[in-house]
Amino acid sequence: MKYLTACGLAAAFCVLAGPSHAQDIEPLGDPLEEALKTGPLLPEEVLRSSALTFPSILESFQREAAARSDQLSADGAFDLMLKAETYDRLTGTFSGGYAEVGATQPLRPLGAEVFATYRLSDGTFPIYENIYNTNELGEFKVGALFSLLRDRSIDQRRFTIEDTRIAASQARLDVLLVQLNVQHEALKAYWRWVAAGNEIRVYEELLEIAQARTVGLSRQVRSGATPRIALTENEQNVIRRKTLLAEAQRNFATASNSLAYYLRDRDGRLITPTREQLPSADILDVLPDMRTLIAAGRDDILETRPELQNFRLAIQRATNKVELRRNDLQPKLDLNVELSRDFGEIGDGGPTFDSTDAIVGVTFSVPLQRREARGRLQRAEAELREMELQQQRVADRIEVELDNILTNLNAALELAELADDEVEQASAMVAAERKRFDLGAGDFFLVNLREESAADAQIRAIRADLTGRLAAAGYSAATMNLDELGLE
């Protein structure tokens, strides 16, 4: 099926007025500049511009970068930690001093932590510092700490790592969602701009017909062949048609400004499109019949929509938070294992340090009331239920939107077919009435009426085409057709 081209618009109004309020396009030095120089502005050029330069898309990339940075920061909780310590007595009864260096590595399983230290002492220590003594080659110690109840399967560090990983995935989905929304709005702005430009063409041709008739009527009035009232009536038509044209020009200027919001140069400066860049109907793609496509792919659409994927990730984050809060209710039971050995000749500490020591320890603690942990758990569970209800609400909204898109597509196709027929009939009536008028059998009032009815029919055809284009843009956004949205 054809739009605009098939509806007889070009046949009925083939004279295009010269561009008004033309503006110079500033040099861009990029592919978009070349496209603007060599031909009319096409939708793919607008989509390329908005995809590469629109601020909210660029902002979403920065949010994703920030989320990835949070993920890197969370991984730092398991960084290897190196620690060194030393002290020495400069004066006093005792001369003891020591140096110690150690490394600690947190592990994810069982909330474990392994460590190793090397310590070397020299001189004499008071009895209350006897523990600092080592043999002459020092003491080497290794050990590990394990969580047996609380923090065994999850703790704040592991929760944060998983949470930031999911948040980074959500940020990637947010980029896609912003891109879909921006490209959808850019397409809508483009087709409104095209429709506004086409309406100007209709009203310009309508006005030109009335103005041309003024010349002929003036000559006939002077010769006495036509009463003056006919000239007065035609002047009224001229004023009315000028008013319609002025309103169309205002709408076009508004549509151009709206489109400039998405049409930018590589530095982000707005480019206001002009009349000269309007495409003709024959170079635009014909709107396809998509009435059966949405119904066939509804389940796939709902599965892949970024809003619902985002909610699934949000629910996963909320579930992890519930598990963390349940972990807080557990008693703290930690197992500590150490193995140490001194090397070299026996030092000032005596022979008691010349041995291999294996130590096992257990620590236990629990708040008796645990009100803080219970309160946090209840809040986390409530947030999880809230997220699940939000997911259901958004899923229902998307289904309604898909139904509306399908309804709009059906209506747009039917209205466009009717508009085509109406334009053909109105154009035929105009031609017949003009012929009758030229033969002296017609009525001047009826000629004007037929011309304006034909113009109204063409405006309705333009707007029916616009409705279909907007519905198709909505379909592309709803089904995440990245190619149609200029995102491939």
UniProtKB/TrEMBL annotation:
This is TolC family protein. It comes from Erythrobacter rubeus. Keywords: Cell outer membrane, Coiled coil, Membrane, Signal, Transmembrane, Transmembrane beta strand, Transport. Belongs to the outer membrane factor (OMF) (TC 1.B.17) family. Gene3D superfamilies: Outer membrane efflux proteins (OEP). The keyword Signal applies. Residues 370-397 form a coiled coil. The keyword Transmembrane applies. InterPro entries: OMP_efflux, TolC-like. It is found in: Cell outer membrane. Residues 1-22 form the signal peptide.
